[in-house]
Amino acid sequence: MTEPLIRSLLDTDLYKFTMMQTVLHQYPAAEVEYRFRSRNPQLDFADCVEDIEAEIEQLCQLRLTEDELTYLARLEYIKPDFIHFLRLFRLDRRFIHLSCHQGELELNIKGPWLHTILFEVPLMAIISEVYCRRHHPSPDWQQARARLQDKISLVQDSVENEDFRFSDFGTRRRYSRVWQQEVVAELARQLPVQFAGTSNLDLARRLGLKPVGTLAHEFMQAFQALGPRLIDSQKMALEAWVHEYRGQLGIALTDVVGMDAFLRDFDLYFAKLFDGLRQDSGDPVEWTEKALAHYRHMNIDPRSKTLVYSDGLTMRSALDLYQRFRHQCRPAFGIGTHLTNDIMSHSPINIVLKMTSCNGQAVAKLSDSPGKAMCEDPGYLAYLAQVFDVDLVTVK
Predict the structure, then answer these.
(1) Which of 149, 179, 228, 306 lies 20 to 30 A from 247 at CA?
(2) In DSSP terms, which residues pair with 37 in a beta bridge?
């Protein structure tokens, strides 16, 4: 048997564990569903299903080692009872339903939120690597390394880059586990100041880097079903986060129902409690101007706040945003596919695995970008847009 693609449960994004801890403490009985979607509808996964199935079986055999648990326990925001829970934890294959029809991959995850939350990132990484291995097995590595060096040189040669900070966010759509490690190690070696860390816990542990991350869309989405009133769902999610982390991990995600609707809920109370905001869809310049104006309106100096950008960034676009806004806030950047799957022999596949229901009720992400909305129930999507006063035409 070949070595599995995923060899550790830490081979995932930090925010999966920070959200999981919150679920354990506050919503351990919540039931959820996730669905896979390829935004490249022409992709044919027919020759990948058997390999994906085999990788899932091996993924579900993994458990955290004592060394890995010790590493997690050293993170100041991870609590002892969560470590005790993780010592017993293993992903359960029964919660995954995988099939393929006419080349279209159908993947559904359904079960307790606490026991399914860790599936998303490794499954995405498996699908991406299996597809790349099947359809683009022999990339030009000399060219790939040259492209990486061009990115590094772009930062090194940038004027006044001393406060430029970026992190690796590329696990879920990487070309391979091995390539991601090479990329991250090289960035850490050549850009020790500007490279702030990685969202991948396994790489952070083994390479001595800072793990980076807070919360994801699914956390905000789930509160559309967990609370008594839909209109209060964002405020409930932010309150739950504050209750869990008491000022740590203070970056709020803004685009689950759009930036305008988010800012209506992000009042002075939250603006003072959270260290900053994360942009993951829409026009980053327009988003930034709205964030800066919102802070100023509340007499908060935005130069004291961190604004994190993570939507399809390239090194060039990150540097451009940094130069434009570095005197008005603290910009930070999470770069994903452009680092870990920028292989000239092919275009990366655009795949997502999103929560679609919680406790039997539809949940949705409206987003600030057309085409990023994802919901199984069009009626609920329209209702969500109506409640939050969002123009649904712009987000479909």
Answers:
(1) 228
(2) 352
